[in-house]
Write a structure and sequence with these properties.
The chain is 35% helix and 20% strand. The protein is α+β, with helices and mostly antiparallel strands. It has three domains: 4-193, 3-Layer(aba) Sandwich (Rossmann fold), CATH 3.40.50; 219-301, Uridine Diphospho-n-acetylenolpyruvylglucosamine Reductase, domain 3, CATH 3.30.465; 304-408, no CATH class. It has a six-stranded mixed β-sheet with strand order 3-2-1-4-6-5, with helices on both faces. The protein has a four-stranded antiparallel β-sheet with strand order 7-10-9-8, covered by helices on one side. Strands 11-14-17-18 form a four-stranded antiparallel β-sheet, with no helix packed on it. Strand 8 and strand 9 form a beta hairpin. Helix 8 packs across helix 9 (262-273). It is elongated, with a radius of gyration of 29 Å.
């Protein structure tokens, strides 16, 4: 039996296999062994079933007999951890990621198959989710790992037949027959009773939906990549699915994909429809910030402000700006009596003299329609007496010039 994804993998590289001693992962391990792949086997024993220790020992022996590196992690679940399946998944992938980095693996291989993908699709349909892929992806990324599912086109029945014919050892997890979990309910009470034709119809339905999503995603990727900012005006031509995918890509440029929830689509839509030109969604160390007609994700560290002191005219390069007092500028007149200069960000109550009157710096930034994130790091040049000598003029179409007296990054 062939696993098409394996044909695209490099036999000179090392791959990590997440193995449970079930027929799916054991078939995959057998294929990897037969085809000469460099494989490391990782197993997590949650110690939730009496037979788990026997499965652990059987997998260890198989790996020893075939000279395959074997690594085991035992886990102990406690009620305060919350949902078992969610906790187990996080525990499992954290351990896999640790080994992945340790051995410089080029991929994590998992034994998910076509029936798993159908079950996932049915669960997605019942929850009425707006998704960016239906079923289980053949190739994806989890944490820092590239994840491959080489058996995703094989049915459970085909896998069992292969294992039995090839004398591949495996154990059946008896908890799969319990209706304790939603996935088991769908499998035991619904999918097992479907005819082959009905199951094929589900597979075709899933395929068509994914094809439609692929077309949408290609359009959004082309139009908005690299997703650093979103021009709100550009959203008018997008439908709800396109907008949701755009927000997902915008969000996951900074945050891990597993953090994205459908509620963020709703919150971003509220931000867009707000009458406030500047508003934000507060997310741990970041803000999703609306700044007039644009959306940006801002690191809170960038809003802390800064200050620099210069005792004499020199060129100063910082993470925020480059300023060169050794050059002549018609925009600012500075004498030796102004030193030491203080270059800093705005403070409450700052006032700037324009001709023969003073204006609040905060008000000036508002009039310029300066994005909020820039207001927190826009440089002010202040003399030794605390008088603001110069504030560079913000313009929406500002373009840095390497020959400028002041270049703002």
């Amino acid at each position: 039996m062939k696993a098409p994804l394996l044909e695209n993998l490099d036999k000179k590289s090392t791959y990590l296999l997440g193995c449970s001693f079930g027929p799916d992962s054991m078939m995959l391990l057998h294929l990897l062994k037969e085809q000469g792949f460099k494989t490391i086997v990782a197993m997590v024993n949650y110690q939730m079933r009496p037979e788990a220790t026997n499965e652990e020992n059987a997998l260890r022996k198989y790996c020893q007999d075939n000279e395959i590196p074997f690594f085991l992690k035992r886990a102990k679940y406690h009620l305060e951890y919350g949902n078992f399946q969610s906790w187990a998944r996080d525990f499992r992938y954290s351990y896999f990621n640790e080994l992945y980095q340790r051995f410089d693996a080029q991929g994590l291989l998992l034994g998910h198959h076509l029936d798993d993908s159908i079950e996932t699709y049915v669960m997605q349909k019942r929850k009425g989710l707006n998704l960016f892929y239906y079923g289980i992806k053949p190739v994806t990324r989890i944490m820092s790992m590239r994840v491959y599912r080489p058996l995703i086109t094989a049915t459970k029945q085909e896998i069992l037949e292969y294992c039995n014919q090839s004398k591949v050892p495996y154990a059946t997890d008896q908890s799969n027959f319990s209706n304790r979990y939603q996935r088991n309910l769908i499998r035991n009470n619904y999918l097992l009773h479907l005819s082959k034709e009905a199951k094929d119809d589900l597979i075709e339905e899933m395929r068509q939906k994914n094809q439609e999503l692929e077309t949408i995603q290609a359009k959004i990727d082309k139009q908005f990549s690299p997703f650093e900012t979103i021009d709100i005006k550009s959203l008018e031509s997008l439908n709800n699915i396109e907008r949701s995918y755009l927000f997902y890509k915008f969000f996951t440029r900074v945050f891990p994909p597993k953090m994205y929830k459908s509620k963020y689509t709703l919150e971003i839509e509220k931000l867009i429809s707000s009458h406030k030109p500047n508003a934000a969604i507060n997310l741990k160390q970041y803000y999703i910030q609306r700044e007039y007609h644009f959306l940006r994700i801002i690191d809170k560290k960038d809003l802390n402000g800064y200050q620099y002191f210069l005792e004499k005219p020199v060129r100063l390069e910082t993470p925020y700006f480059i300023i060169d007092f050794t050059k002549q500028s018609d925009k600012i007149l500075i004498s030796s009596n102004d030193f030491p200069l203080h270059i800093r960000t705005m403070k409450r109550g700052d006032r700037y003299r324009i001709h023969d009157y003073y204006v609040e710096v905060r008000r000036l930034f508002i009039d310029w329609k300066m994005p909020v994130s820039l207001r927190q790091r826009w440089p002010l040049v202040v003399n030794k007496n605390g008088e603001i000598l110069y504030i560079p003029r913000y313009q929406v179409n500002y373009q840095p010039n390497d020959n400028s007296f002041l270049l703002i990054k």
